Fold:
Amino acid sequence: MRQIISTLLFVLLGSVTSFAQWRPDVLGDGYEMRYVDQPDDYSGKVRCTIVRKLSDCSSGKGVLYVHGFNDYFFQAEMGDRFVDSCYNFYAVDLRKYGRSIIAGQKMFQVRDMKEYFADIDSALAQMKRDGNREIVLMGHSTGGLTTSLYMNENPDTLIRALILNSPFLDWNQTKFQEKFLIPMVRGVARLFPDVSIPQGGGDHYARSLLADYDGEWHYDTSWKLAVSPNVDSGWIRAIDAAQSVIQDDPDIRVPILLMHSDRSFKNGDPDSMYLCTDAVLDVEDISKYGRRLGPVVTEVTVYGGLHDLVLSGKGVREPLYDYIFKWLDRQGL
Structure:
């Protein structure tokens, strides 16, 4: 009897503590957030952030969104679409990204993509505590690589489907760079993971998104930088190792919705093409490797789509949302 009472008190107090940790999110409009402290890593203290908005009509279904590189969750319109369609919506700002950044931390630093598994696990545990019994995992760009790797190695979860928004499944580099330079950097990173590697490029992609320029979106440019920053050799090694697993031996057993633009931006294209192409990745590589991820893959080519498809023009993203929800319905979700 004493054990039962102790257990009940633990659950009740734990629920109160968990509830007290939630606070209004910067997005407002019903979004709330809380931090989750993770074990220290090679850089010191680490935390992730869970963001959620609960649906009034949810029947135990939830969506968990994982952002990409130089990014964080700010796509409130996407979250609202899921909430309005009776899904509880959650997003995780991974360690060293967005809301999770701690003063003095090196932004976006990672040495093994599996470091993010603990952040995803924390979000999933919260979703379970909130009563979600069927979960859809969604990843964009590097988040698409991370979620694919996660599902490849964690098949026995409540996750029933995987949605990939322009996943980073291969480098968008020349054959010489991919065959020789990246393996060389990966070798260097074993001993020197902090060597700075420039990415190049300007602010054209950011200008295609931001409402102050050619786009229609507002976001914090101290969390999502206008010019993609240098990475380090450890980041290159982590990405390349994850891509090798996903390319060579994928076995994701849940249904996958693979989405990408119809065209990548190419050298020599006019700047206007930034508004209707994937300016970050090679869509042919996404298609090539995405189709191999598991036995049930539905591939969708989004004409005129940006790299982050849900930030595309209204005429592109409206039919895209319609397709996503019809696809989920076909999966019984």
In short: Residues 1-20 have pLDDT under 50 and may be disordered. The longest strand covers residues 32-41. The radius of gyration is 20 Å. Residues 195 and 202 are 21 Å apart (CA to CA).
